[in-house]
Amino acid sequence: MDFSIFLIQCLNALQYGLLLFLVASGLTLIFGIMGVINLAHGSFYMIGAYMAFGLAPIVQTAFGGGFFSTLLVGTFLAVLLGYLLEWAFYSYLYDREHLQQVLMTYGLILVFEELRSLIIGDDVHGVDVPAYLSASIALGQTMSYPVYRLFISGLCLCLALGMYIVFTRTRLGMMIRAGSSNREMVQSLGIDIKFLYRIVFAAGVALAALAGMVAAPVSSVYPNMGGQVLIICFVVVVIGGIGSIRGALLAALLIGFADTFGKVLIPQASGVLIYIMMAMILIWKPQGLFKAG
Amino acid sequence: MTAKRASPLVFVALCFSALALYPLVGGQFGVDLVSKIMIYAIFALSLELLVGGTGLVCFGHAAFFGIGAYAAVLLAPETEAAGAGLLALSVLMAAAYALVVGALSLRTSGVYFIMVTLAFAQMAYYLVHDTPLGGGTDGIYLLIKPVFGAFDLDRPLNLYFLILLSLVLVFAFLALLYRSRFGRALAGIRVNEQRMRATGFSTYPYKLAAFTLSGALAGLAGFLFAVKDGFVNPEMLSWHLSGSVLIMLILGGIGHLRGALIGAFSFALLQEFFKSEAVFGSFAKHWHLGLGLSIMACVALLPHGLVGIPGQLRERLARQAAQRSQGTGAVDERI
Amino acid sequence: MSGSEPEQNGANPILRCENLSRRWGGLLAVNQVSLAFWRGEVHAVIGTNGAGKSTLIHMLCGEIEPTSGSVFLHSADVTRWSQARRARAGLGRSYQRSTIFPSFSVLENCRLAAQARSPKPWHWWEPASRCEASLAAATLAARQSGLHDDLDRAAGLLSHGQKRQLEIAMCLATAPQVLLLDEPLAGMGAEETERMLALLAALKADHAIVLVEHDMDAVFRIADRMTVMVNGSIIASGSPQAVRHNPQVQAAYLGEH
Questions:
Q1: Which of A18, B324, C30, C145 could disulfide-pair with A156, CB 3.0 to 4.6 Å?
Q2: Cβ atoms A140, A4 nearer than 8 A
Q3: B residues 140-179 near C, CB within 8 Å?
Q4: B119 in contact with A, Cβ within 8 Å
Q5: Tell me, what CATH number does B43's domain have?
């Protein structure tokens, strides 16, 4: 493999890994802090992608906005959706056993998929890359790399940094971390734990939806995209450790690289590769690479 | 035998009798449908051993079902296969994969276990989906059905009774297992694994044995499915099937073997209901919506499944009676 | 450092630990604890909350691995043994919060515990309820604990005191030589406490009993030896009289008595 191809694959791996991290961080947070296993998390990613497709013309005609406006509107809607869902549905799941949570959220997946089918249909759609991000950067003499993919990586990195700052430097972050290790204590300290959970859940939904929106131009928009991303996110969370953002980042990058290079070097086994990796890490560390926090 | 103990047995005996007599009234479509449901009942029973018997929520059970099915097709020779031998091999393959997955997954617990079993099922899915081994998305055909002695499986009725026999045998086996020492140990592990360890049980081997046995029985169901349809495809290992069989269990009622039976039939009927154009017209193609809402309603309103309805009713009546009998509030604990 | 074991009346201790320590990150929960327990004695381990008593018990029975030090059962080094293996070798354990099986009957609770000695998992066709060996051991244990009138009751319906009795019965059903009891008197009224103390006195002859308790009156009545722990270390160990008059102990713990 010559160097420019290697570089391209590295950049692809980075972009894929960071995107996975964005989705998985929501999943691991929701599980680590509220103790809810949420199978419908992939559906939020799907909803984001379909929003990128469906909202773009609306935003365009309503106030002439382009890609970034769509992103903002979509994120806002996702936060709203997360807030409402937590209030109407997820808050009832906190004290239930895992099997019930699994099946309730599985039912939710079915409902989301059919709603999507009813509202938009089952066709595969593409989303355009905005004009100002559609250029390519030259790498070496013959190769070039799309700026948009670099934008994705950059955005994910900024969000990761933002998460880090919120968690370690703000009061909200401190409350979240406290809430993940001791729910009753936080409640007795007078912090409104219900409100905290709602915020965390809405943030998780927004992150997944934003990931879907941003990924849409690259991976297109199709039914079942939620299911695929969900299971890989499960692998990320298992490898990284439930509740650990740091673990999710490391695991997501690991999977990003394993999957990307796997597809290039051993295309037949690429689907199986990440599971083999998960198996080996589990032999070594059954609780994942990092503990929560 | 007290009246309370006898009634589930009577119920199950009635069910099996009804199934044995069904071909007299059911047409070709009916026999085919009930054959399929009975196979799913075996599948559900295998998972009940894990979830209800041992307390292990596995979200990847379709893998063992699918491996049993694929083994039946891939290992069948060009000519007619000896049915018993092919069955044994298919079950063995499924059990082998269950042993490996169990050995690794049981090092985790709780949510990790759920996620890990799902992931390993996906691994098997991609193995048959992407590699030439599995014939890809198109699947593979079983051209010649295996033979069980003089029993010709090309006739649907023979197949029906073979499946019914398997169902009865699996049910009886699990019933015996549940009341054996091994089954009681599993029950103890389900309620409080820590206490079992403190008492001197090494719990890991018990769980692994249950997991492997459960996978083997799922493989049996898969084998029967492959023989019945003559066709296997990767969707038999999909996580949607894993989800469906869990739904069957919770619909019927976890912790009771007959729950798996009731659940399989109820789920199949529910699916047929939502898919029927007679009821829903053109909306029938969105049957997942009705199914999803039903699942949520079932989990929320019927936590003990259909099996638990008599119990729930009795509790409610007892509470009402206690409220009416002023003051004493004494309720017979056995209710 | 194994050296020779301390002897008492010519007998070796059934259970012994040597320089047992447990560190959680920066916190030293148990610090170089060495203790020995003999058959025929009730040895109480007392201390304020957070003194490390629970951690010590967890390490003795195998639930937690020590950071350093060793545990000896019947003179064998069992530090690396799993909890189940130690239980089979004669180390019985009861928990502070009842770990009985609420949906099973009292007899079944004890029978299942006794089954650990004769598991026979391969005989899948034999109903467990006909297993003579485990039934005999279970009935004996239940009778010893005073529950012979309630054998068929669902364990979840027992009174709190009876549940604690069942907890002990399950421990006894495995025919242990050592009983590690974590606050067996917790939440008990006066009459139930009396019954439990009588039970422990009766069991003393054939077992080594290690008791973690907060009920000081009960402890002083029943204990033959006492060990006081503060912040993970032992500050006094010996006869109850000696411990009671130990100035350090009085200052740190028994101040109000």
A1: A18
A2: yes
A3: 173, 176-177, 179
A4: yes
A5: 1.10.3470
| CB-based contact A106 B247, cutoff 8 Å | yes
Residue-range definition of the domain harbouring residue B133: 18-303
Q: Which residues of B touch C113 (CB under 8 A)?
A: 199
Point out which residues pair with C179 in neighbouring strands.
C92, C209
Whether residue A204 contacts residue A21, with contact meaning beta carbons closer than 8 Å, is answered with no
pLDDT score at B325? 65
Closest-CA distance of chain A to residue B18, Å: 31
3-state secondary structure A231-253: HHHHHHHHHHCCCCHHHHHHHHH
Residue A55 has pLDDT above 80, yes or no: yes
Lowest mean pLDDT among A253-262, B169-178, B275-284, C54-63: B275-284
Higher pLDDT, C25 or B179: B179
In B, which residues are within 8 Å of C93 by CB distance?
A: 198
Any CB–CB contact under 8 A between B188 and chain C? yes
pLDDT at A282 over 90: no
Give CA angle at C127 (C126, C129), nearest 5°. Answer: 140
A116 in a structural domain: yes
Residue C168 has pLDDT above 70, yes or no: yes
Where are chain C's structural domains?
A: 11-90+176-257, 98-175
- What pairing do the DSSP bridges indicate for beta strands C178-182 and C91-94? parallel
Q: Nearest C-alpha of chain B: how many angstroms from C36? A: 21
- 8 Å CB contact of C121 and B195: no
Answer positive or negative: Cα dihedral of A269, A275, A280, A283: negative
Query: Chain C residues with CB inside 8 Å of B203's CB?
Result: 84
pLDDT of C254: 58
Could you tell me if A151 and A262 are in contact, meaning their C-beta atoms sit under 8 angstroms apart?
no
Q: How does pLDDT run across A28-39, given as a tens digit for each residue?
A: 888 888 888 899
Number of domains in chain A: 1
- Mean of the per-residue pLDDT values for chain A? 86
Q: Which two tokens stand for residue C223?
A: 């204990």
pLDDT at residue B5 tops 60: no
* Residue B245 clears pLDDT 90, i.e. is over it: yes
Confidence at residue B4, expressed as pLDDT on a 0 to 100 scale: 52
Chains near B with 3+ CB pairs less than 8 A apart are A, C
The mean per-residue pLDDT over the stretch A185-208 comes to: 83
Q: What is the spatial distance between Cα C197 and Cα C188, in angstroms, rounded to a whole number?
A: 11
The reported pLDDT for the residue numbered B331 is 41
For residue A280, the tally of other CB atoms under 10 A from its CB is 12
Alpha carbon B251 to its chain centroid, in Å, reads: 12
* pLDDT for the residue numbered B6: 67
pLDDT for B330 beyond 50: no
Q: What is the CATH number of domain C11-90+176-257?
A: 3.40.50.300
Say yes or no: C165 contacts chain B, CB-CB below 8 A.
Answer: no
What pLDDT was estimated at residue A91? 85
| Chain B residues inside the 8 Å CB shell of C112 | 184-185, 188, 199
Is B1 within the bounds of a domain? no
B9 falls within a domain: no
CB of A37 less than 8 A from some CB of B: yes
Of all residues in chain A, the one with the smallest CA distance to B60 is A231
CB contact under 8 A, C99 and B199: no
Give me the percent of chain C exceeding a pLDDT of 70.
94
Q: Spell B276-285 as b/e; 16+ CB within 10 A means b.
A: eeeebeeeee
pTM listed for this prediction:
0.89
A178-202 mean pLDDT: 76
Determine the residue of chain B that is closest to A92 in CA distance: B300
C in contact with B (at least 3 C-beta pairs within 8 A): yes
User: Residue C93 pairs with which residues in a beta bridge?
Assistant: C180
Q: What's the order of all strands across the beta sheet hosting C27-37?
A: C27-37, C15-24, C68-73, C76-77
